[in-house]
Design goal:
The chain contains 9 helices and 39 strands. With 470 residues, it is of the alpha/beta class. It has 2 domains: 224 residues, Spore Coat Polysaccharide Biosynthesis Protein SpsA, Chain A (Alpha-Beta Complex); 180 residues, UDP N-Acetylglucosamine Acyltransferase, domain 1, CATH 2.160.10.10. The termini are far apart.
């Protein structure tokens, strides 16, 4: 990170409606890579400035935007009327007036990297500029404002010319304005009120500060972004999904570069916060979301969705599992078609099989629940076997209660364990039992009505039916 960052504020524009999206939601709250657009920008800004020095300008549906990013610790500035980017900075005047420099970002540029901001700020400070423009050279600059420099190799900018205003000699310029700026606060605020809404939208454009500051003898410079795609925004849902695809492929590429095998990577969804160890294999159509971490030598089979989970090494997650906010230790086997809900802790070498659901449940080392089972609010000891169709009845209509099962317990198929209840080490529960009382260690417990057999009864019934049919 560049030095001398004291006195730096960041202003993020997030007040607009995004009417071209044809959506009721504010533009900056549309999601790519598992997070709202503005959250990606805040994350990048947070690497060059403290959250308390980041100001998000809100306007349209301001309370929704505030609620979405409040946990980041940023501050907010109200722009009750959306009268342009220049007007947004006017609204933020009181917030930034005591800072030395301010970085101005758009809340809808989610691919922007903090390294690019750091480079830009270092350039801004080294050039002693009043205004620094982050520029880019995209394959097709049409539609963007062009950067006219004072000389071919000059750092200084003479003008920023919009597409419709380009003259013959400027049409071939391929360097564009990204709409991302750094300012020295004192000259910015000194000349800010010189902005005029002399355009068809009748808005105040921050871009015009380049000409205003230049005319005042201040230094205006530009620095080119290493990757033009970083500064891309989105004005339609289609463009937003294109950004999502770019971000996703960058995440996939990052993991593969670190030794992760990903089959059909274009089919997988992998979010920026995901970490995966080398020699892990990810099959097609897997989704890894949130802050998921997976160790080495694991296998995640197709159609599985994992969100905010921690998986150890040598873990096998079979097809079509859904895992959320859970921990799976080394050597565990999950699925297929298993559902681990928040708070599940699956111990080393434990097995959670097909159509098994867990919630706030801990399985000890080597414990098994292989078929058609619900385990909620339960603690299950090492090497315990849970038979098919077992249910922990954890909810009494008002409160949740805990089921405790010790080590080396065998719970037969189709049992209901009515919590709160405790089954001690080495106990055996007969199939089909409804257990409502604690079971001591080494005991057999079962609740089963006596079987009644009536010989010939079924044959008599069939004969009666045939007679009626005649």
């Amino acid at each position: 990170m560049s030095e001398s960052k004291q006195g730096l504020a960041v202003v993020i524009m997030a007040a607009g409606k995004g009417t071209r999206l044809k959506s009721k939601r504010p533009k900056v709250l549309h999601t790519i890579g598992g997070k709202p657009l503005v959250a990606h920008v805040i994350a990048a800004a947070g690497r060059v400035a403290e959250p308390s020095n980041i100001y998000v300008v809100v306007g349209h549906q301001a309370e929704l935007v505030k609620a979405a990013v409040a946990a980041t610790g940023v501050q907010f500035v109200e722009q009750t009327e959306q009268l342009g980017t220049g007007h947004a900075i006017q609204c933020a005047r009181a917030a930034i007036e005591n800072y030395d420099d301010v970085l101005v970002l758009s809340g809808d540029v989610p691919l922007l990297r903090w390294q690019t901001l750091d480079t830009m700020l270092g350039f801004h400070l080294a050039q002693k500029a009043a205004m620094t423009v982050l520029t880019a050279v995209p394959p097709n600059p049409f539609g963007y404002g062009r950067i006219v420099r004072k000389g071919e190799k000059s750092a200084e900018i003479e003008a920023i010319v919009e597409q419709k205003s380009l003259v013959a000699g400027q049409v071939k310029i391929d360097e564009i304005n990204s709409g991302i700026y750094a300012f020295r606060v004192k000259p910015l605020l000194k000349h800010l009120d010189q902005l005029r809404a002399e355009n068809t939208q009748r808005e105040l454009y921050l871009t015009d500060m380049a000409a205003i500051l230049g005319a005042a003898g201040e230094r205006v410079v530009g620095v080119v972004a290493e990757d033009a795609e970083e500064v891309l925004g989105a004005n339609t849902i289609r463009e937003m999904m294109e950004l999502d695809a770019k971000m996703n492929m960058a995440n996939v590429t990052r993991l593969m570069a670190n030794g992760v095998t990903i089959f059909r990577p274009e089919t997988c969804v992998i979010e920026p916060g995901v970490e995966v160890g080398p020699d892990t294999v990810i099959e097609p159509f897997v989704q890894l979301r949130g802050k998921t971490k997976i160790g080495s030598d694991s296998t995640i089979r197709s159609y599985t969705v994992i969100e905010d989970c921690t998986l150890g090494s040598d873990v096998l997650v079979r097809q079509s599992c859904v895992l959320t906010e859970s921990t799976i230790d080394d050597g565990a086997r999950i699925g297929p078609f298993a559902h681990l809900r928040p708070g599940s802790e699956i111990g080393p070498d434990a097995h959670v099989g097909n159509f098994v659901e867990t919630k706030k449940t801990r399985l000890g080392r080597g414990a098994k629940a292989n078929h058609l089972t619900y385990l909620g609010d339960a603690e299950i000891g090492e090497r315990t076997n849970i038979g098919a169709g077992v249910i922990t009845c954890n909810y009494d209509g008002a409160k949740k209660h805990l089921t405790r099962i010790g080590k080396d317990v065998f719970v037969g198929s189709d049992c209901t364990l009515v919590a709160p209840v405790s089954i001690e080490d080495g106990a055996l529960i007969g199939a089909g039992s409804c257990i409502t009382k604690n079971v001591p260690a080494g005991s057999l417990a079962f609740t089963r009505p006596q079987q009644v057999v009536k010989p010939g009864w079924a044959d008599s019934l069939k004969a009666a039916r045939k007679n009626r049919a005649k």
